[in-house]
Amino acid sequence: MSAENRGEEILSEAAAVRWEAGPNFHDSLMETIYTDASQVADRAVSRTDEQPRFDLDRTIDRLVTSRWLGFPMMLAILTVVFWLTIEGANLPSGMLATLLIDNIHTTLKAGSAELGIPWWLDGFLLDGVYLAMAWVIAVMLPPMAIFFPIFTLLEDFGYLPRVAFNLDNLFRKSGAHGKQALTMSMGFGCNAAAIVSTRVIDSPRERLIAIVTNNFALCNGRWPTQILVASIFIGGLAPQHMAGLVSAGAVVGIAVLGILLTFVVSWALSNTILKGEASAFSLELPPYRPPRVLQTIYTSIIDRTLIVLWRAVIFAVPAGAVIWLSSNIIVGDASLAEHFINFTHPFGLLLGLNGVILLAYVVAIPANEIVVPTILMLTVLSAKMAGMGEGAGVMFELDSETTTAAIFQAGGWTLLTAVNLMLFSLIHNPCSTTIYTIWKETRSAKWTTISALLPVGMGFVVCFLVAQVWRLLM
Amino acid sequence: MADPVTALVVAFALVAIVAFLFWPHRGYYWRAQRVRRLGGRALLEDALKHLYNFEYRSQPASVESLGGALEVSQNEAADLLVRAEERGLVKVEGAVIRLTPIGRSYALRIIRVHRLYEHYLSEETGVTEEDWHRLAEEREHDLDDADVDQLAFEMGNPAYDPHGDPIPTVDGEIAPQRGVPLSEAEVGTPVTVVHVEDEPEAVYAQIVAEGLQPGVRLDLIEITPERVRFWANGTECTLAPMIASNVAVVSSTGPVEDEEDEFQDTLAVLRPGESGEVVRISRRCRGLARRRLMDLGILPGTEILAEMISPSGDPTAYRVRGATVALRKEQALQIQINRTLEAH
Hints:
The complex is a heterodimer of chains A (474) and B (344). Chain A is built from 19 helices and three strands. Chain A has helices at residues 3-20, 25-44, 51-64, 70-115, 119-157, 159-173, 180-189, 191-197, 204-213, 223-234, 243-271, 293-328, 336-350, 355-363, 371-382, 401-410, 415-426, 432-442, 445-473; strands spanning 283-284, 330-331, 334-335. Chain A is elongated. Chain A starts with a helix and ends with a helix. Chain B starts with a helix and ends with a strand. Helix content of chain B is 40%, strand content 21%. Chain B contains twelve helices and 14 strands. At the A-B interface, helix 1, helix 2, helix 3, helix 6 and strand 1 of A face helix 1, helix 11 and strand 13 of B.
């Protein structure tokens, strides 16, 4: 028999066997490989007796996942984390603001005046680029430097996976993964860092859901906007002694609305465009271990805080430049900013907002932190308020709520404007740092676009409906 | 400023128009796109497929059967045949319609794409089985040869699609028809499903609802002109003979351990503190979901101990090979076990 004949015989036999092997052939083969691998591992790996540790783990587990204690403990721990972040960040934020915005900025301005640098270069670099950067650092750095290490410590200890375990049923019903509870909490600190943290969700569909809906977790760049607007407009509605409580209630209401939207949008996504994505649930509950404090603080500051801060600064620089240029380049009888404001104002009114707010949200795409300073500067600019603010293109904030309220009133704000600004601040596109991070994580133009446009589209619809119904009823 | 009522009316009208134009899949724009892109090609390819399927089952195809399968009038079906004949794909001699060798290889190519794509949907995506056929029906006309070869390569050149239909090879080789219709099987001998016909959709949905798919074992109880009664997946099922004839079975002669056992306990029955030994992962659990379970070390013979239930009722944490892993109920139901009785 020639070799050629033999070869053909083998091939034809293989072709026949191929059909006979049946549809489950690949499955069986894979199962065998896995079984072999586990047998090899069982022979080669010896385990030390960890019984005492295991019993301790069981006791903690029984406590944190118990029917009665599980949820209250979880709420208490998260509340403490948020309280520490907000309270603890106040002081360093104020100090950074004094240092970077009041002291250094003033010194730099004085220095540049001495050197005789032309006003446009000095304005562009110091009032535009430097100020935007300083603002982002002052507002963003302290809360992130507090929040991320605490969160990482909880993770390291082994508590966070138990939170996911407790809440998974809720997320399962909206087509999401229990670990989304963690990425959502992280989003209350910073959406960009939270997008990176969705890596813990190892099922493709659930991870995309967590990424697209993360923006509905109110990040710390937006809390100050909410608190300021709520205390001026909504706190003002209540009697003096109740004002604080009412405005705090309004802000918490917005955050809760964000959580509700997370569930609703997760459910909608998993039943429409994400229906076909592959999905596989698994949630490992690692053994508890004493957190490695120093190492955790070091890595969480390097990996999370600084990387995100650096990205934010990179994006804040061009934003500062655009803000300054748009208010200082005069075309005809007004600056570019005023032209834009006048042009979009009718559209803004239709949404219950105004032209200033729309422009502020366009130029402040790089960082939510600079929305309020930009709105204040643009309002003063477009309402031509003499003696207010720091000049065209120079962002500012005021210590006094009354003066801030006066500027808003001069800008034609009503209670509706305030409510819709709070809603729009919750439901609009993620900042460009977050969008860039989504692109880095998904490498998909489609999902990046959807994550960016879906919330802003929803924001327009919500603000429009609220404005029309408000005007019908009032 | 616009009057709120006018604004609302205008907005709703705009939304309605946009929805009409761009509604996913069904919007006017998408339909127009599809028609322009495919022209008559999709219809022609569907016609070749129909002729091939009839030839494969040794049934005579006719203008009526073609019109019925493609949901077009008989005139249109006849036109289609004329066009196919002009291109040398079909030979019509009186009432007999036959595929030419070129037509047959064209049909096999489309069928290859269709079945490969169904296999891809079942293994690599989360698309549920009701939608496999419809999506493959759309995509089979779009994929070119390079895409298809790439797809086959990535799937490991599968031989069968998830319905048990053989996938033609690149050279157009295909396995002969296997099994007999369930409605003609012999009562009393255990049989195994080898193929489930995925058309028409309404019939397929009923078959899926009974949990029938390739690999499932049945015990026939009785066959009458009105109904076919059998045991499958641990319950008694009844199908109309017309529907049962869309399920092909062979008598189970192979070792029983390779088949799903209908009376098996699943992981979901374990209460905290109880344990069991894995027998197998159900065939319904496919692709990524199945690989994930195996990654976690859930394999035949693995000892699993139920540890605790989430305070919200689902998932449950299990101890598997020294690690604690939470699984949802729908996953636990896919893992068949033998209870370990002495453990308490």
